[in-house]
Amino acid sequence: MQIAGISAIVVGGTGGLGQATVRRLHEGGAKVVVADVNDEAGKALEDELGVRYVNTDAGSEESVLAAIAEAESLGPLRVSVDCHGGPAGGGRLVGKDGSPMALDAFTKTIQSYLTSSFNVLRLAAAAIAKQEPFNDEGSRGVIVQTASIAGVEGQIGQLPYSAAKGGILGMTLVAARDLSPLGIRVNTIAPGTILTPAYGKAGDQLEAYWGPQVPHPKRMGRPVEYATLVASIVENDYLNGETIRLDGALRFPPK
Ligand SMILES: NC(=O)c1ccc[n+]([C@@H]2O[C@H](COP(=O)([O-])OP(=O)(O)OC[C@H]3O[C@@H](n4cnc5c(N)ncnc54)[C@H](O)[C@@H]3O)[C@@H](O)[C@H]2O)c1
Fold first, then answer.
1. Contact residues for 242 (Cβ-Cβ < 8 A; gap 6+)
2. Cβ burial 79-90 (10 Å sphere, 16+ → b, else e)
3. Ranges of each domain in the chain
């Protein structure tokens, strides 16, 4: 699939991974809708690039539909990338004082990371399904989700986040199978540690900590490396139902 001439939504599009993706798709000639809750950063991207920003809560049907409608008004909607963040609860399953992890630490994290991802997945799929195929194989578009290597090897204290990201891994193949009659591919990127501007000055410390633990290259990833992978997923029509780790061969240790 060609990036030029399509329209795309990027949920979490003002964040570290999202913004790099917005820039990459925009440079490739797509019409991009930035769907996020950060109005200031969204408007700044609108002013700089001429993309559209729509205030969007990934967990709200009404809100995601509004972002999709905006994208549909710009051209055939063929791409949905979801890399939104949100609050995550954590801590040990049983604390040092013997008390169990609070139930809402789990349910809130599942809501913000997994249920919201499912919400974007289902609504984007239905919208892309309405587009005319762009080739004689019946292909209509692609959905990219964002998990984490913590969805496979969660660290101590990360149980809710790990469960949420593991849920996204689990949705990938079945979503691709469900959507195959509609010609919509589904792939997931599972990043390791990516250095985003959101870390600010703490980024140096993070890189000093994580960098040496990455087999090669010995550094954290860069948002542009995530965005490059998104573009490759969009362009490669045979890549479907897959989770791709983007981690320099890092495997998270227990802590
Ligand atoms: N950066 C990493 O090292 C890394 C590693 C593994 C996984 N991830 C995952 O990648 C995703 C993006 O990470 P990031 O580093 O770019 O984070 P980030 O904090 O820079 O960006 C997240 C974006 O999501 C937006 N957001 C928050 N709640 C939202 C909501 N309800 N609806 C829509 N947008 C919302 C924020 O405003 C922000 O712009 C997250 O899901 C994160 O768990 C990141």
1. 172, 187, 188
2. bbbbbbbbebbb
3. 7-244
Distance between CA atoms of residues 128 and 81, nearest Å = 12
Which strand (E) or helix (H) includes residue 233? helix 223-235
Per-residue pLDDT reduced to its tens digit, 130-161: 999 999 999 999 999 999 999 999 999 999 99
Please tell me the distance from the alpha carbon of residue 1 to that of residue 236, in angstroms, as a whole number: 7
How far, in whole angstroms, is CA 123 from its chain's centroid? 15
Q: Which of 161, 209, 226, 238 is catalytic?
A: 161
Q: What is the pTM of this model?
A: 0.98
Quick one: which atom of ligand 1 is closest to the CA of 150?
6
Options 3.90.226.10, 3.10.690.10, 3.40.50.720, 3.40.1160.10; CATH of 7-244: 3.40.50.720
Residue 161 bears catalytic tag = yes
Tell me if 128 sits within 8 A of 184, measured CB to CB. Answer: yes
Given pLDDT bands bounded at 50, 70 and 90, which one contains residue 198?
Answer: confident
- pLDDT over 90 for what percent of the chain? 98
Pocket lined around ligand 1, Cβ cut-off 6 Å: 11-12, 14-18, 36-38, 56-59, 83-86, 116, 146, 148, 191, 193-194, 196, 198
State in Å: Cα 22 to ligand 1 middle. Answer: 14
Number of H-type helices and E-type strands within the chain: 8, 7
Write down how long the chain is: 255
